[in-house]
Amino acid sequence: VNIMSLCAAPSGQLARAHSTSRPCKPVPAVHAVCSVSPRVGQHAACSPSTSSPSISYTVSRRPQRMQRMAPMQVAAVDSAASTVMEDIEVSTPARLIINYALEFCKASETYQVHSWMVLLGILKYENSTAAKVLKSMGLDDLYGAWHEVLWALNACDGLEPKAFQPEITFADRAYRVVVASTNFASWNGRTKVQSEDLLMALAAGNVLDGLFPDLNLSFARVRKAVEKQTGSKYALPDDSEEDGAAVTKSGDEDFL
């Protein structure tokens, strides 16, 4: 799998003309989104959970690169991904999204998962609940949005290749997004993380607002859109029992 194969349009979007894509323009917040942070094992202070998250699946596809990695190196990367992601149960859509982020960081030779890679996974799998929510909020052209995010991150050197590393690490915000998604799932009585839980975590980290400021993808608005899409209330621990008031934007970061 090379980087161009990962750049393929979401299903049903391959025939979309490039001219229909949203105009590409740099966004100020993108530098914060792709900032380099320590690896997962060093995030003991992250709230609301202090344990390192992992997802119980094995990365099955391996990247083909300009200079092929030796088989032992490829095995080391896949082993590292499995070690980092264990214990967390995920639904099939969420599994595809996070697997996409892992494959993307390997194919781009960054060896570090960033929160925007998770967003790219959502944009890639347009049949997921999370992608449908984004569509309902005005992000109609997922194919164009995918390229816009990638363009913005290239502009800030977010995809600068690194020397081969035997471990795949998680940037701070990506780590917090994964941890928060498990808590969102738990608060809603689920044992498996769903794609909408990942989307809510991205909204809580202001990743969506930072990359698409013109759409007002605030935490409160995303939550309402998720509820409309799923047909059920999206519970949060600080909901008032009397009125079920949504959390205000000022409290978004408390969930990461």
TrEMBL record:
It holds the Pfam family Clp_N. SUPFAM superfamilies: Double Clp-N motif (SSF81923). InterPro entries: Clp_N_dom_sf, Clp_R_N. This is Clp R domain-containing protein. Residues 230-256 are annotated as: Disordered. It comes from the Eukaryota. Residues 91-204 form the Clp R domain. The lineage of its organism: Eukaryota, Viridiplantae, Chlorophyta, core chlorophytes, Chlorophyceae. Signal peptide: none annotated.
